[in-house]
Write a sequence for this structure.
């Protein structure tokens, strides 16, 4: 099963920091997200980003897990050479992660 | 309980015009707010103002005002916007001119000033917030503090029907009318946090009602070509009902509202604003009917002693070139194209500060490292250089691949632009003094 089957995601940016919030499609999926979606798994799935630091915030009230990836936007949208300088495509890429059915 | 209705007329400078008209005509609004000022836009606007003292405000201001001013004033809808950018006073004058041209006399407008702190930071030094280095490493061309909502509330209290600001916290555009209507105190952290949450949900307009959300088969959204923008019915206790005009496109779903609540939020327990530190870990969103989301529960902590300042500076030029390859071996030919340009850049000792080689379709935005063989690729080279002529060489080298590069290269495009970058610093709250100027059409 892919993360996309359990969740949806929205990506934002602040300076050189990307923020990807992953939202469960239901309560059962939320406990699965909380259990399986670790900072290590996010970093290894988005393998070429190599964040300086990743923070993870769990939001039971919004059935969400928020990831804050520092230092991944080539200096930020105003001076980055990247095609997607905001990193807006990252959340959808994260949804391609394989998740165990357990 | 007393309530007011606030609409979101735009979520960025380039946003569609007609959803705001729809909100004014059918939303039974009290206030309509337009968020049109991205982080870098104000630095570019400052450059425009240096060239022409009457410029420096949002170039689409007149167009938006021609569309909404008449219907809004006829229905008693008051307008708040950061379309003032680097020149709120000129923005007000331009909007007054639109009012006069439409025969709307006696319309009271105001400009909120004081966010421009460029003179105040001259000669100062401090660490940059979101990257290494300090203020003395860059040559600022603009410096704008994020003001809060109280100057907007004051301008409304003084009778302004249309208000233009420069840099303010985006949610403050919406919080200002709430403070004015309900008389919230400067230390009422719970209500200020509640209003901030509502403003934050509204500030990107269509991103709350189905924009940036649709994913066919997973998150289906009807009629995005006619996307309706959201409005909030806000209560004096800082709770609200979010909705949109019946019959417009899009959908205001719980899933979409949750996404927008967390958009660009780092630590959700500490959303830093000029007026309050809002905590969204207690936020409650509930679907109470089709296109109806109830918002409550945000909590607040005392506002920070410092204000964030966006500092704009010139950072050289970015030159870019792209060329496409298709068919068997497309990726290998694209890679060969990139290798050729890299060798040419080295041979000619082009002075690049930073250069990047992408294969669009393989690894330009894809961060997973996995890439099946594509049917087509687009080789892309982008470099930041101190001088314009060097940056222009990047596009020229890519264009030369037409005759000198791999087989079957087509569709070259080249671009060259000056870079105005933005860094952030913090300044003491007391160093920023907002003021208000009024005008009448």
């Amino acid at each position: 099963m892919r993360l996309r089957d359990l969740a949806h995601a929205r990506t934002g940016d602040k300076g050189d920091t990307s923020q990807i919030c992953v939202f469960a499609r239901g309560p059962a999926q939320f406990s699965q997200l909380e259990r399986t979606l670790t900072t290590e798994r996010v970093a290894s799935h988005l393998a070429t980003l190599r964040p300086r630091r990743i923070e993870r915030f769990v939001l039971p009230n919004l059935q969400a897990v928020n990831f804050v990836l520092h230092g991944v936007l080539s200096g930020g949208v105003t001076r980055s050479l990247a095609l997607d300088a905001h990193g807006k495509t990252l959340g959808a890429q994260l949804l391609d992660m394989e998740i165990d059915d357990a | 309980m007393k309530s007011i209705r606030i609409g979101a007329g735009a979520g960025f400078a380039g946003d569609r015009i007609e959803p705001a008209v729809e909100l004014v005509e059918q939303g039974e609004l009290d206030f309509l707010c337009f968020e049109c000022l991205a982080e870098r836009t104000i630095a570019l606007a400052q450059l425009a103002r240096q060239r022409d003292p009457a410029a420096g405000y949002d170039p689409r201001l007149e167009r938006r005002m021609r569309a909404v001013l008449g219907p809004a004033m006829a229905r008693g809808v008051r307008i708040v916007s950061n379309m003032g950018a680097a020149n709120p006073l000129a923005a007000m004058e331009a909007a007054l001119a639109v009012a006069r041209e439409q025969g709307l006399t006696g319309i009271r407008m105001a400009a909120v000033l004081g966010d421009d702190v460029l003179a105040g930071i001259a000669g100062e030094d401090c660490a940059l917030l979101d990257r290494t280095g300090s203020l003395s490493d860059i040559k600022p061309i603009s410096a704008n503090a994020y003001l809060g909502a109280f100057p907007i509330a004051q301008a409304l209290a003084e009778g302004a029907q249309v208000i233009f600001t420069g840099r303010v916290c985006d949610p403050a555009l919406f919080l200002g009318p709430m403070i004015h209507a309900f008389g919230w105190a400067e230390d009422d952290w719970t209500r200020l946090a509640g209003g901030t949450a509502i403003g934050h949900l509204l500030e990107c307009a269509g991103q709350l009602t189905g924009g940036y959300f649709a994913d066919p088969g997973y998150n289906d959204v009807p009629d995005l070509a006619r996307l309706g923008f959201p409005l909030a019915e806000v209560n004096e206790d800082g709770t609200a009902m979010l909705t949109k005009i019946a019959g417009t496109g899009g959908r205001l779903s719980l899933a979409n509202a949750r996404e927008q609540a967390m958009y660009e939020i780092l630590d959700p327990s500490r959303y830093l604003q000029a007026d309050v530190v809002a905590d969204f870990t207690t936020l409650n969103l509930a679907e109470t009917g089709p296109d109806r989301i109830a918002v409550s529960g945000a909590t607040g902590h005392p506002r920070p002693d410092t204000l964030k300042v966006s500092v704009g500076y010139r950072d050289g030029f970015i030159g870019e070139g792209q060329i496409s390859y298709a068919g068997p071996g497309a990726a290998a030919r694209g890679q060969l194209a990139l290798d050729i340009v890299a060798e040419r850049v080295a041979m000619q000792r082009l002075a690049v500060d930073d250069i990047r080689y992408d294969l669009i379709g393989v690894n330009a935005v894809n961060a997973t490292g996995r890439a099946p063989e594509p049917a087509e690729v687009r080789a892309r080279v982008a470099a930041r250089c101190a001088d314009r002529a060097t940056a222009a060489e990047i596009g020229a080298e890519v264009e030369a691949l037409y005759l000198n590069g791999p087989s079957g290269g087509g569709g070259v495009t080249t671009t060259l632009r000056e870079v105005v970058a933005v860094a952030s610093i913090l300044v003491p709250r007391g160093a920023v003094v907002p003021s208000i100027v009024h005008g009448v059409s």
Observations:
- The CA atoms of residues 147 and 168 of chain B lie 4 Å apart.
- Chain B has a mean pLDDT of 97.
